[in-house]
Amino acid sequence: MPDNKKYLGMTVYEESGGNFSRVIEEKDLNALPEGDVLIRVQYSSLNYKDALSASGNKGVSRYYPHTPGIDAAGIIEESTAPDLAPGDEVICMGYDLGMNTSGGFGQYIRVPDNWVIPKPSSLTLKETMQIGTAGFTAAQCLLAFEENNVLPSNGPVLVTGATGGAGLISCMLLVQLGYEVHALTGKTDQSPLLKELGVSKVHDRSLGMEGSDKLLLKARWAGAVDSVGGQVLANVIKSMQYDGVVTSFGNAMSADLPLNVYPFILRGVHVVGIYSAECPMERRKTVWKRLASDLYPKKLEQICSSVTLEKVSEAIEQMLAGKLVGRKLVEVDNELSAHLD
Ligand SMILES: NC(=O)c1ccc[n+]([C@@H]2O[C@H](COP(=O)([O-])OP(=O)(O)OC[C@H]3O[C@@H](n4cnc5c(N)ncnc54)[C@H](OP(=O)(O)O)[C@@H]3O)[C@@H](O)[C@H]2O)c1
After folding, report:
1. All domains of the chain, ordered by start, with CATH?
2. Is 203 exposed, middle or buried (0-12, 13-18, 19+ CB in 10 A)?
3. For ligand 1, is residue 276 a contact (CB within 6 Å)?
């Protein structure tokens, strides 16, 4: 490959006065970090963490200029790893990708071989990124329910932040597995979509704030999937049935947790934390195997839309404003972006 090879990608620049700007521009392949595997990225996806990275959140990305994108799926062009060959279709998500390592919002990534997994044969590259970190995280929540014996017969389960990427896929998978799913959302105008996915009842986000001053609330949920944190998560934990399980993976509302110990010592509530970026490789492969089989989100197309690299900035603004519904696939290798080849 010529040394001066160029590709297109997003660069986030830190400007004076604490401002950040985003451009899609030509980048040098040589400027990518060292790594075992060079991947030509076909698709990425937009996750909340990308929106934070793309807007200068130093808790996610410390160093700028930077290319975000915690998800990438594509084709290997160069590899020094014995089990990964040029031409292989692969997925790379999490670890440091898109945080401080140049990420999937560029047409190339170069990464260590132990970040890369072969694409499951029954999924297309596009489907892996429609699922992306959001769907992977939803599947991990389902596994946590299985491992902690939260069965559909135990009672209803709640999904918070229900119209977000991880929320909608969680709703879909739980319905598929036979749970009675309730959704908590700030966008009750999306009730038709949630009902279409099989959600039994849609609750306004304000329900999640009721009784915040109480130590315990009426026991309602056998399980809960939470992407928002804060007072909503605290109240969800206070509303769990005896032995109920809450999976916590997000802080779209707040990173605080104003809580007391009674849900734990009087109801035996379990909270399972999920962090997909550092999910160990063996489990990662297990989760993808399940996503490619019984946990394939059957109505994925209904909750996904696509953007090109050139349009991803607008979607980032919508996401930060809490206005985005569902998943955004990022078409990184679309025709417009490929003119540099
Ligand atoms: N730990 C992990 O491994 C992991 C993996 C994936 C995601 N996450 C985290 O999970 C969260 C969701 O990620 P995502 O990619 O699904 O993001 P997303 O698509 O933007 O969804 C977030 C949803 O949260 C709700 N929300 C937004 N602002 C809120 C507020 N101020 N108060 C209450 N609810 C609010 C909205 O849903 P409604 O309007 O329906 O309420 C929104 O659609 C983020 O915090 C993300 O960082 C963590």
Report:
1. 6-119+300-340 (3.90.180.10), 133-276 (3.40.50.720)
2. middle
3. yes
